[in-house]
Amino acid sequence: MHYDRDMARNYRTVSKQDKKKFRVQQAEDIEGLKKRVEEFDPAENSGITKFDELPLTKDTLKGLQEAGYVNLTDIQRDAIPVCLQGHDILGAAKTGSGKTLSFLVPALERLMYEKWGELDGVGALIITPTRELAVQIYEVLLKIGHYSTLSAGLVIGGKDYKYEKERIGRVNILIGTPGRILQHMDESATLNLDNLQMLILDEADRILDMGFHKTIDSILSDLPPQRQTLLFSATQTKSVKDLARLSLVTPKYISTSTEQDITTPESLDQYYISTNLYEKLDILWSFIKAHITSKILVFVSSSKQVHFIYECFRKLRPGVQLLKLHGRQKQKARMETTQQFTHASHCCLFATDVVARGLDFPAIDWVVQVDCPEDATTYIHRVGRSARFGRPGKSLLMLTSSEEEPFLKRLESRKITVKKLNVKGSKKKSIRNQLQSLCFESPELKYLGQKSFVSYCKSVFVQKDKEVFDLTKLPLEMYAKSMGLPGTPSVKFMDRAKKGKGLTDAEMTKIKAKKNASRKLMIIENADDNGDVPEDKKVRTKYDKMFERKNQSVLSEHYLQMTKGDDDDDTDDFLTVRRNVDEVDESELPPLELINTSKRAMKRAMSKKLTAMKQGKGTKLVFDDEGHAHPIYVLQHEDDFHKEGPAMVLKEKFLHKEKETMNKEDELDKTVAKEKRTEKKRRRKEIEKQASLHEELSDEESAYTVVLGESDDQEEPDLDKDLAMGEEVEREKRAEVESDDEEERPQKKVKLDETSDKDEQNVIEIEQPETIDDLEALTEKLINNDA
């Protein structure tokens, strides 16, 4: 709580006599207020409308005025005077009626009457069901108690426990959630509740519905019985009345209306639409696109649905700021989201029922309920986030054909009338293809969609009102397609739903208690005398679950169970990895839980290419004369190396030896090259000599003269052999050019004479043929010329 420094400074500077007068005057004022409170008759003063007409201290009135609280609401006018007189209260009023000030003002006044100090411990304990509501109450308390010398503390899950533990001993008004308060009562030695004056439970019915029965019983058992207890809630259920009988002593029931009359705000316009389950996301997207300048609060059943819808819509970019809020988020993220939505003018918040109770978000234009609420009471709390304190607001409820008729009857029984709206076909836009594309591109988003699907089915299955919530009547396959999923995930409890077997009250209570239980308290309860927890009773955190996954991104056991039914067998996988452990020492094998047996690991084990990529290039080995393998380079022992002499000398010897070896090899290579060039030159000259002899032959003996009817003993010239010889000459010539050993020889022309008696016109002069095409052309020309 803030402390008035100016007042304290002035108090320190005055004399002792003035201080004494100030204390006497303060005591007289408090005694006068006590008398006014005792004489105050709520029935006679039922017409008061402002806070300054109540018997309150000056500091409290000043804080209320500066915080903007001037006029009284009905519940405040009826509850505050009775609370100031010390009675136990069981209060009920419609949502948004100002119940928070109905217990904060009496708590401040009660401690100021008792002159509560820092060393007196906790004087008022306020318990709320959610962290966001606890933060909101704490902020209101700071505003109205600004001029008080009392201190206030907030203890909720997600905050630094050590920081709270160090300062909780100096707190006068403690606000928190049940789990964290019980944890401090068990572990914080400085927390003193022996002098507790007031116990306040806000939204008591919600505290019990969330499974905090045992936690509340443990807290009440450790509190002093001589205390004042206040229970406030928008609705009075049977569980709240049972709690009131256990913790309240001759309570006074204060309500602005009867239980059946507790309904929605009068300034709220309520609508509903009848639609198919698989069209809800399309309608929600179209609604947001049509109201981008509004402040919208969207309710769904589970946190996984919140996460999936938020991620999908965020990628599609509707043109308005999107936020998400659910119980599985970190406390810092929840606080930041709450602050952003509170101060935003155009925004859309996807949330669960964690924000359905008590939270005051200013100027919400629309409350959209995508999933049908649990009952009429939940509906009242949801729509109560809008149209608060007389402001205008609107709500929209989406109902399927199986939910419409029975749930409207539930609302009519509570005197709630909602108008039906029809969605125009031109206004509705389908995003099914976009969602399918997003799930195809992102395996993580597809996995999130599968979890969202199962979570929605579970939220329907656990409801008690089977007339409204019937899982077997829902088109789940089409709903999965509307979410962009490639197939319908398997639901374990579908067989149980078809048989009409729901969860019993005991099972529901156990689930809620386990969901909201403190992990540290569970560890303490399961520990033995030595503080050790058995393996089967250890609390598995999200990090434990993460490291148990076969693939760190998506392929966890839960994912495989959803995509593969229980009836599937593994006979199709005829190729599996089998390890032969007979030849391996079991002591050398790693633990089974450390062996990667995923499908990806089996695929890599059966592929030589993937195995080589995983293991690298490997190590080269050489075999000695005896057939033993050893590395190519074997390191010599350091002592043996030093015995051979200094390293520099050994280096010089090695280099000199290698240089001599290289010189010898160079000389040998040069000799071999010279012999090859000599042989090539000799063969070339021989071929040229044979060619010149052919040119000197007479016309009758020409190698290229074709004469019919020659004698049989005359050898026929072999044209192919000569041409092959010419080609070999050319190859030799090109080799000589490349080696630069011989000069380039000019091309030689061959003169072929038909006969010596012909004219010079009959002489054909051609170039030496180089290719097969040239040879064929030459042959054709010779034949034609001969003809």
TrEMBL record:
Domain of life: Eukaryota
SUPFAM superfamilies tied to this protein: P-loop containing nucleoside triphosphate hydrolases
GO MF entries: ATP binding; hydrolase activity; RNA binding; RNA helicase activity
Gene Ontology terms: biological process: rRNA processing
Record's keyword annotation contains rRNA-binding: no
Xref: InterPro entries: DEAD/DEAH_box_helicase_dom, Helicase_ATP-bd, Helicase_C-like, P-loop_NTPase, RNA-helicase_DEAD-box_CS, RNA_helicase_DEAD_Q_motif, SPB4-like_CTE
Stretches with biased composition (Acidic residues): 710-719
Basic and acidic residues bias (residue ranges): 661-678, 685-696, 720-737, 745-761
Catalytic activity annotation: ATP + H2O = ADP + phosphate + H(+)
Occurrences of domain Helicase C-terminal (ranges): 280-439
Residues covered by the DEAD-box RNA helicase Q domain: 49-77
Region entry Disordered, spans: 661-768
Top EC category: hydrolase
CDD domains: DEADc_DDX10, SF2_C_DEAD
Function according to Swiss-Prot or TrEMBL: RNA helicase.
Name of the protein: ATP-dependent RNA helicase
Source organism (scientific name): Eeniella nana (Yeast)
Lineage, broadest ranks: Eukaryota, Fungi, Dikarya, Ascomycota, Saccharomycotina
